[in-house]
Every structure is written in structure tokens, then in C-alpha cells.
Amino acid sequence: MLYYEGRWNENRGDEFASWGGSDWYFEVQPDGIVVRQMEVYDSGSVLQYDAEHLEDHYGMLADQPFDAETFPGSAITREEFEHAWSTNSPTNRQ
Asked: Buried-most residue among 69, 77, 88, 93 (CB within 10 A)?
């Protein structure tokens, strides 16, 4: 697996725009398929998506192959991803 983190400084542009910017985390298979995705917003809202929770009224797990070349972030270690995943309580799973 490959792991990435990146910052999106713009708001969502929807009814949740007040959440502000966000940090995005991805766990990606070598073929580009996203397995887990997390969005951590400036407001404290956290969205987590995986095979057990593909989508909800906030959003969804990426359904397109991940492109590391165009992603505005960088590779991180598995440990960094797991730490972020396990220490951020998801708003969309409570």
C-alpha cells in the first residue's frame, strides 16, 4: 500500500463550506485504487471512508484511480497514516 497526505486550503463550496480547509489522507493500492480516505477539516469535522463505509450525505470514497502526480501533497509512511486514522474520531460514523 501507498500513503499520502495533502492540504486543501479552500472550503468545500457546499452546505458544509463553514468547515473551512482540510487535510486529506489516502491509503492507495499500487494500481491506484483508494482503499481508505480521511478528510480532517479546520472546524474539527472528520470524514472517514473505506469498504465498510463507502458514502454518506457528506461525500464518498474516491471512485477514480489516485494520481500521485497531480495530488497536492506528499507520500507519508503507513505509521503516519495509521496514527492520523486512529486519532481522529469520524463525524460521519457516530
From this structure: 88
Task: Give pLDDT, residue 3.
Answer: 98
Are residues 62 and 26 in contact, defined by beta-carbon separation less than 8 angstroms? yes
**pLDDT interval class at 93 (50, 70, 90):** confident
**∠ CA 73-79-83 to the nearest 5 degrees?**
85
Q: Minimal CA–CA distance to 40: which of 76, 80, 87? A: 87
Is residue 58 within 8 Å of residue 47, measured between CB atoms?
A: yes
CA–CA gap between residue 29 and residue 64 (Å, rounded): 12
SS (H, E, C) 17-44: HHHCCEEEEEEECCCCCEEEEEEEECCC
How large is the average pLDDT for residues 50-64? 96
Q: How far apart are CA 88 and CA 46, in angstroms?
A: 7
